[in-house]
Amino acid sequence: MNQSTPEQPADIVARLRATFRTGRTKPVEWRTTQLRRLREMLTEHADDLATALHADLGKSADESQRTEIGFTVREIDHTLDHLADWLRPEPAPVPERLGADTTAWTQYDPLGVVLVIAPWNYPLQLLLTPVVGALAAGNAVVVKPSELAPATSAALARLIPEYLDTDAVAVVEGAIPETTALLAERFDHIFYTGNGAVGRVVMRAAAEHLTPVTLELGGKSPAFVDRDADLDVVADRLARGKFLNAGQTCVAPDYVLTDPATATALEAALVKAVDGLFGADPKASGAYSRIINERHFDRLTGLLDSGRVVLGGDNDRAVKYIAPTVLADVDPESTVMRDEIFGPILPVVTVPGLDEAIGFINDRDKPLALYVFSESDETRSRIADETSSGAVGHGLPLAHLTVSDLPFGGVGESGMGNYHGRYSIETFSHRKAVLQKPLS
Ligand code: NAD
């Protein structure tokens, strides 16, 4: 390949499709070799990758290990442990009228060449975890990292070809023009993580080729806090979930819903919890991330006057720092309650009780996650049963996505389809029906 002229999307897809058609990606040995090589890449270059993540988002080495590199390694290990089992054909009972000698089963077929488009907030994990599933299912893959995390994008573009089969895995860096050019090609599946506006662009482009899509989108994930909950525990867990990666987490609790009396006590508990996590000056804490860019910084600081600042509010554009912030007395119609916050601002909205909380949630788009802090079985099951969301977390934000045996994905505005563990095999395969009757 000529280094001076980058390979065009059509040529990349044709090259990968030619590889796929040779059958090279199908044997389980090829798949597990790719997964082991990916694991080696992550462990041998853990420091380089952590440096890139720090450059893009100010993530601490510990956080990068937990939520990006180590997370992906665990997904690889889980997949390697179970892949043979997951891929086993599943027998289906056959009706008697077809005869006793007839058998039927389903088997997983790889789809072909798939496209993975990733966002900037967990720029490594959200690119590579889908890739683990796509390779494990026997596909060739084109990956498009986010241009808004340029250091991580460059590191992955350099390392992936060193470790993975370059005839079956290609990295395309770039922004809207490059992604638009890729989307004009025919893929066998498109896996997109990011915002809903671009999700619509992806789905429209996919429709041209009847390509199935998985859309991992975002939205406002509520946290309902019941009056019986231990507020010190709730505040600590809420603060950890909200302020991880400076609130730039798709499943972060977006806002709190609670009754007025609980709100007052919870606000005080949140002040204490944030101090416990990041000290009196979070700006000086190495554990606290920065906002990705000036555009998001300006968007977020524009939300700070949506309520009474109970905690934080201070910010510094030069280093893209916004303090962990809690806003009280927030009007449900205020700007901060309109769109997903995706930053370190936690509004507390009050409702009279459980019925109104359920109504509040159901009046809005279906969230990616919904968190419930309650000692009452009845309250927990009422919220889970009477609302719709990608997932429900009782008592602990974010943790559901670390359980590889749970599907991860949204519903309605928060997305379609899911992945992780065996659900990634479902997403990146065709479950083919096979029937067999002997000729004699
Ligand atoms: P982003 O701006 O990095 O965009 C995501 C990808 O889309 C990038 O690779 C980008 O190059 C591409 N893109 C952007 N505009 C495009 C266009 N017009 N046409 C084609 N491609 C385009 O990331 P973002 O959207 O700001 O990410 C944040 C959003 O993603 C939030 O809403 C968040 O909740 C959501 N999110 C969801 C999950 C999940 O797993 N469900 C995870 C992380 C983030």
List the helices and strands and how they pair.
Blueprint: H1 9-22, H2 28-44, H3 46-57, H4 61-87, E1 90-91, E2 103-110, E3 113-117, H5 125-136, E4 140-144, H6 150-163, E5 169-171, H7 176-183, E6 189-193, H8 196-208, E7 213-216, E8 222-225, H9 231-243, E9 255-258, H10 260-278, H11 294-301, E10 308-311, E11 315-316, E12 321-322, E13 325-328, E14 345-350, H12 354-362, E15 369-373, H13 377-386, E16 391-394, E17 415-416, H14 422-427, E18 429-436
Parallel strand pairs: 3-4, 3-6, 4-5, 6-7, 8-9, 8-15, 9-14, 13-14, 15-16
Antiparallel strand pairs: 1-2, 2-18, 7-17, 10-13, 11-12
Helix pairs in contact: 2-4, 2-6, 3-4, 3-6, 4-5, 9-10
Bound molecules: nicotinamide-adenine-dinucleotide (NAD).
Residues 117-121, 126, 144, 146-148, 175-176, 179-180, 193-195, 198, 201, 216-218, 250, 340, 342, 368, 410, 415 line the site of nicotinamide-adenine-dinucleotide (NAD).
How would you sum up this structure, described in words?
The protein has two domains: 9-217 and 410-436, Aldehyde Dehydrogenase, Chain A, domain 1, CATH 3.40.605; 222-402, Aldehyde Dehydrogenase, Chain A, domain 2, CATH 3.40.309. It is α/β, with parallel strands linked by helices and 440 residues long. The protein is built from 14 helices and 18 strands. It starts with 8 loop residues before the first helix and ends with a strand. Helix 5 links the parallel strand 3 and strand 4 (140-144). The model has no long low-confidence stretch (mean pLDDT 97). The strands form four sheets. The chain has a seven-stranded mixed beta sheet, sandwiched between helices. The chain has a six-stranded mixed beta sheet with strand order 5-4-3-6-7-17, sandwiched between helices. A three-stranded antiparallel beta sheet has the order 1-2-18. The chain has helices spanning 9-22, 28-44, 46-57, 61-87, 125-136, 150-163, 176-183, 196-208, 231-243, 260-278, 294-301, 354-362, 377-386, 422-427, and strands at 90-91, 103-110, 113-117, 140-144, 169-171, 189-193, 213-216, 222-225, 255-258, 308-311, 315-316, 321-322, 325-328, 345-350, 369-373, 391-394, 415-416, 429-436. Helix 2 runs antiparallel to helix 4, helix 3 (46-57) packs across helix 4 and helix 3 packs antiparallel against helix 6 (150-163). The chain binds nicotinamide-adenine-dinucleotide. Nicotinamide-adenine-dinucleotide binds at residues 117-121, 126, 144, 146-148, 175-176, 179-180, 193-195, 198, 201, 216-218, 250, 340, 342, 368, 410, 415. Residues 117-121, 126, 144, 146-148, 175-176, 179-180, 193-195, 198, 201, 216-218, 250, 340, 342, 368, 410, 415 line the site of nicotinamide-adenine-dinucleotide.
